[in-house]
Each structure stands twice: as C-alpha cells, then as structure tokens.
Design goal:
Structural class: alpha/beta
Shape: globular
Radius of gyration: 24 Å
Helix content: 25-40%
CATH architecture of the domain at 397-504: Sandwich
Strand order of the largest sheet: 1-2-3-4-5-6-7-8
CATH topology of the domain at 397-504: Immunoglobulin-like
Strand content: 15-25%
Number of helices: 14
Largest sheet: 8 strands, parallel, barrel
Order of helices and strands: HHHHEHHHEHEHHEHEEEHEHEHEEEEEEE
CATH class of the domain at 397-504: Mainly Beta
Low-confidence stretches: 1-27
Mean pLDDT: 92
CATH superfamily of the domain at 397-504: Golgi alpha-mannosidase II
Length: 505
C-alpha cells in the first residue's frame, strides 16, 4: 500500500508517459495567439519543477541614489513624499535634476558577470538572471527599441548579454523579468487635486520631466507615447528583442500586466513559445495576480506563500533584505537561516523560490549579501538532496508555527514568521521521505512525527532506515500508532536546519 501512497504523493502530477506525450505535442505544434491554442504549452516543465531555487536582482538606474527603494523614480516627483524631500535637498527639484540625469552616474564599473554567475552557482541557484526592465523605462540590455539602454548609455556594455553567457556556461537556466507594463503614461495632463496616477509609474506634476512630451528621447524613458504605438513597438517590441537576443528559459512578469490588452498578452505568449519550439527548449512564463491563465503560466506570490500543497507548481519571489528590493544605504539583510527556512517551506508545498539580491550601482554585491548566499549554498551542497528534484508528500509538514491567510496583502505578517525546531517540513524523492526540522534541536530531544501516525496514513509503512544527514550516529527510532518516534543524538548538528532521511520499501 505504501507504494500506492507514494504514487499519489511523491511523483509528478502527470505520469511519465503523459508528460512525454505533452512534451512531444508542445514541441511539434505552432502556437496561435489565443488561450485555447496556448494551453497546449506545458506550463511547468520537469526541469523547472525540480530546480526549486533561483536568483535575480533589482539593479539599475534606481540603484544610483540608493535611497528609499526601486520606486525612487516615481516617488521623487511626489510633493510631500520623503523621497521627494531627499531628492530636492541632495540633487535639486525634479525639474532641475530629473531621473534621466542619474543615467550617466550608473557606470557599473565593478560589474563582473563571471563573478556574479559563479556566486549564484555557489549559492545553489538552478536559474538566475536580471530584472531586464523595471517600471522606470530603462533597458538593462543592448536595445534597438529604446535609446535608454545599458549599451548606449550609463555602463555602455550589454549587461544582460554578459550575464546570459556566464550563467548558461555554468549549467544554470536564464531568467529575465519584466515590470514595464506600468511604464506607459496613461494620463495626459495633471488635474487639480490629482496626486496618485495609479496605473502609470511616473506621475504628472507641472514642471517635471515626465510632462515634457516635446523631447522625443525622454518620451522613451517616461512612457509618453500613444497607447497603441507603445503597446506594439515598445511593450511587445522589448519582449521580442530580449527573446531573440538572449533566449531566456523563464520570462517573469510583475503586476499591472492586466493593463496590457489581452490580444497583446496572447501575441507575446505565442511568439515566445514558437521561438522556444525552434530552440527545442521548454520555457516558463510566470505571472502575478490573475494576469495570465494558469494553464499556460506559473502563479507567483510576492513576499508570501501558500498555506497548503498546490497540485500545480508555483513560485514566490522574495528578497534577501527586510526593506527595499534594490540597494539602499543601511539596507537590512535577512540571516541565511531565515531565507533557507522560506525555501524549505515553499518547496514542501510544491513551490519554487526566486530570491532577489540588491547590488550596488557600481556593480559590487555587498559582503553581507554574499555571505548569506554562501551559507545557503554550503547547506544545499551538503543537504540539497532533500530539496532538488523532490516532490511534495501527502502533507507539507507539522508544527506549531502558523502563517497568515492570503498573499501579498499580508506580506508584513509573513516577515514576522519565525520557525523553530518544533516545525517540520516534508519532501519526497523515489522511496525516500525527508523530514526537515526548521531549527537546531537540543541534543537528546525526542520527536514524534505525527504524519506517520496510524490515524493519518491509510496503511502502515515499511520503514527500512532512519538517519540524520550530516551525522555518523544512527538515531534510535520506532514506528508507533502515534507516529514515527526518534531521538536526536549528541552529535554536532547543523545550526539552521536538520534533515531526517527516512527510507521505505
């Protein structure tokens, strides 16, 4: 009976034969720009389900002022905002020193794509890549679509191109993320009392650069175009350009994709999937909110997680800091233990973690962030068998710590979660169950894993072996009606997470 339980609990949702048939179907067809045709795409390839961990980074012009957050280019224009006050005091009024004036200061003089890619590899990432463009209209690749790009201005080098080569050379998949759906200026003039402009990144306040529509070059940065022209030539044009130049394995979208008409979203998906078919690659599209159907895309939850196992693979994007996504002075960095616990919790529920880091404008990654990545990588090197190429068990875990209901709207509550050595998460691989303890137990601590109790399991399991990874001493264990009992020995244990490997047969 335990093998039947495993078939439903630890294997991919589709059987291997069905997966092969779907892969063959998706690789042979030509996708049309409609949801029915696009649904033939396998949204979660096996490589993605098994990768578990990726790294990206908010790095761009907004890294130069290193104040507030990556929303600096918006907030610097809003009277009364602390960013506007800071900008005015340090650089002058936005009409005197605009966001575009930061571009020559973004030199990336210390950027080394090989060094970055090696760091990501050592951190244990299975895919990595840049925020290709944030809301601010500045392209981090060599672009012919817009003059505001890293090859023509600022660093004067193809950042995305260098990273693509270095990342792929190390066997990792390549991700590019896009936040530019918000860049279009959807308003045509400031009205009395209007202060928000919710669907455009740059607010229109008198005597600020976003209001100067006569400067054709600035229009590309501040999004001042007729909507149809912007949608076709800029929003879609940039996506096609990155697809053609860099062949990303994952394209990830931030919010506000619902502002893009459905026909353009469909055209993008068809173009990307048909190009991937030519490359003979299975690619992934990631969305937020409800901006794309889930039979063609992966659901992403920002700074939050699911409360249960989802049958469909999903993703959470989380940042290494407790504040801004981009580098700012005095940015507070999470300890490696906290990031690792998030990764394990996500994986136990059939999720994938996309972790953001925050480089400085000069292209250096701060030592504190590097240290966290090295610690995560060291743990994954030793215990990664419990993470990579695993699948959820029938339950994600047990323990006293509860997380909030809902997603991003409760992200501040997720920050408060602190797991302990009483919290357990489960993953599975072949005939192995991993019980992962989210903390360092006291030596001699006794555990009863209730997930193995007679009341929870349909039938008793034949447990062949129980071991604590990283230690030599075999634990004393016994399978009882109440669950699997074992005692943690006096051996030296990992200070962040302890992995119990349970072999069944």
């Amino acid at each position: 009976m335990h093998r039947e339980l495993f078939k439903s609990a630890i294997k991919p949702i589709l059987t291997f034969s069905v997966m092969v048939l779907m892969t063959s179907f998706s690789m042979s067809q030509i996708y049309k720009p409609n949801w029915q045709s696009l649904a033939g795409h396998r949204e979660a390839p096996q490589w993605f389900q098994e990768a578990k961990f990726g790294i990206y980074f908010h790095w761009g012009i907004y890294s130069v002022p290193a104040y507030g957050s990556e929303w600096y280019p918006r907030n610097m224009h809003i009277p009364g905002d602390h960013v506007n006050k800071h900008h005015t005091e340090k650089y002058g009024l936005p009409g005197e020193f605009g966001y575009h004036d930061f571009v020559p200061l973004f030199k990336a003089e210390n950027f080394d794509a090989e060094e970055w890619a090696e760091l990501f590899k050592k951190a244990g990432a299975r895919f990595a890549g840049p925020v290709a463009e944030h809301h601010d209209g500045f392209a981090m690749w060599d672009s012919e679509v817009t003059p505001w790009n890293v090859t023509d201005k600022g660093p004067e080098r193809d950042i995305t191109g260098e990273l693509e080569k270095a990342i792929k050379a190390r066997g990792m998949k390549f991700i590019t993320t896009f936040h530019h759906a918000r860049n279009l200026q959807r308003y045509r003039g400031h009205k009395e009392g209007e202060t928000n402009f919710p669907n455009s990144h740059y607010p229109l306040f008198p005597e600020t650069p976003p209001t100067d529509t006569t400067n054709q070059e600035l229009n590309y940065l501040y999004g001042n175009f007729p909507e149809e022209q912007w949608l076709d030539k800029i929003w879609l044009g940039k996506l096609k350009e990155v697809i053609n130049k860099y062949r990303p394995d994952i394209i990830w979208f931030d919010s506000w994709l619902d502002r893009i008409p459905e026909s353009y979203r469909q055209e993008f998906c068809a173009y990307y999937l048909n190009e991937a078919k030519k490359w003979n690659k299975e690619v992934v599209i990631v969305r937020k909110q409800n901006d794309l159907p889930l039979d063609i895309s992966i659901d992403d939850l920002e700074k939050s997680r699911k409360n249960k196992i989802d049958q469909k693979p999903w993703m959470t994007d989380e940042t290494i800091s407790k504040g801004s996504w981009c580098y700012t002075e005095n940015l507070k960095i999470k300890p490696a233990k906290e990031v690792l616990h998030t990764l394990i919790d996500v994986v136990s529920k059939n999720g994938v973690l996309l972790l953001n880091i925050s480089p400085r404008a000069d292209g250096t990654i701060p030592a504190g962030q590097k240290q966290v990545l090295f610690e995560i990588g060291k743990w994954l090197t030793q215990y990664g068998e419990a993470i990579y190429k695993t699948y959820p068990w029938y339950t994600f875990g047990e323990g006293p710590t509860r997380q909030p209901e809902g997603h991003f709207k409760h992200h501040e509550e997720f920050l408060k979660i602190k797991y302990s050595s009483d919290d357990i998460r489960y993953t599975t691989k072949e005939n192995t169950i991993y019980a992962i303890i989210l903390g360092k137990p006291e030596p001699g601590k006794e555990y009863t894993l209730k997930a193995f109790s007679k009341a929870e399991l349909p039938e008793r399991m034949n447990i062949k072996k129980v071991e604590v990874l990283g230690t030599k001493r075999k634990p004393n264990w016994k399978l009882k009606e109440e669950g699997l009992e074992f005692t943690i020995s006096q051996d030296e244990l990992d200070g962040m997470v302890v992995v119990i490997k349970i072999k069944v047969g």
